[in-house]
Amino acid sequence: LADATVIPALLGSAIRNSFDITVTISNTLQANGNVVVRFPRGFTLNDGGPTNVTDATLVRYTEEYRTPAVVISTDEGSRVVTVAVGGSSDDFLEAFNLVKFTLTNIRNMVAR
User: Which of 79, 81, 78, 107 is nearest to 12 (CA)?
Assistant: First the structure.
């Protein structure tokens, strides 16, 4: 990966929130690959319902393509969410292309 950003929808403490995730590819990524997101201590997954993925897209240069990404696992103890990107197995994202999605039902207990 060349870069990754995680941006909360709301900046409050102890609230259920969603997080926008953007991953920039450094080399290549198979479009049906996985993205693993690890949150720091103080974050709670599956808050009020299962952590879910919405609004998933693959971005090739300036074009965005919707993809049926799904959460394939959550590990509440280590605060890890694994997302299957949902693209085709014979498709690859090249360097500087993006994977974007939103994760829901996560609580940040340390924001101030």
Answer: 107
d(CA 102, CA 106): 11
**For the segment 27-77, what is each residue's pLDDT rounded down to a tens digit?**
988 999 999 999 999 999 999 999 999 999 999 988 999 999 999 999 999
Give the number of other CB atoms < 10 A from CB of residue 110: 10
Beta bridge partners of 64: 59
Distance from C-alpha of 96 to C-alpha of 16, rounded to nearest angstrom: 31
What tokens does 51 get? 């952590």
Distances (CA, A) of 79 to 1, 26, 30, 49, 94: 20, 25, 25, 15, 29
pTM of the model: 0.91
Q: What are phi and psi of 17, to 5 degrees?
A: -145, 170
Task: Provide the 10 A C-beta neighbour count for residue 105.
Answer: 18
